[in-house]
Amino acid sequence: MFATTEPMDLAADFPDLISAANKVFGEGKWNHTVVSQTLDFEDANYDALNDPRVYHTGCVSFVKVQLENGNFHEDVGYFKAEEFTQGLSIYNARIGSAVNALRRVLLSFGEKIDKELQRQVIPKQVSDIKRNATQSLEPMDLIAELPDLISAANKVFGEGNWRHTVVKQILGKKYTVRGAEYHADCVSYVKVQLKNENFHVDVGYCS
């Protein structure tokens, strides 16, 4: 199923991201617009004996950011949401994809906004998750999950000349439905190291 949704304002939904951009560009000297959103799919799984109905929704968002001097960039974001109500699944997919698109388009403005996002936004996300953390997961291998990403890295670094490690994962909010536990947030730390021993570690967040 495909559907086009109306644009939205992210200031109320993701104030930390907006605050970081305000600090770099100046409050009132830039604007963002969710140009379009498309629901990629909607699906519902239901097991009458064990689990409740779970709604899955994917959404693609295009976001434009324009500065006071007329310079602008536009980029795309995607998010898949899983919730126990259809409305919440659609809402979270829309918000998640718009936030991802906004983050991507802000990064296209250069190193200054990149550093501010890392300084201000990511630490808060990690702090919020750690406050509600309930479980740490074992490291995993992403080759089977993201073959295209691994293939791209192999092409750049050379197959066998780099490696990746999911160093740590922390699950956040936990809730129980019909005896089954579900977690709504996760922070992951991933390390990539090259053959010459150069490496980087970064953090990702998803809800």
From TrEMBL:
Keywords: DNA damage, DNA recombination, DNA repair
Top-rank taxon, per record: Eukaryota
Example GO BP: double-strand break repair via single-strand annealing
Any one of the GO CC terms: nucleus
SUPFAM superfamilies from the UniProt entry: dsRNA-binding domain-like
Signal peptide: none
Similarity section: Belongs to the RAD52 family.
Protein name: Dna repair protein rad52-like protein
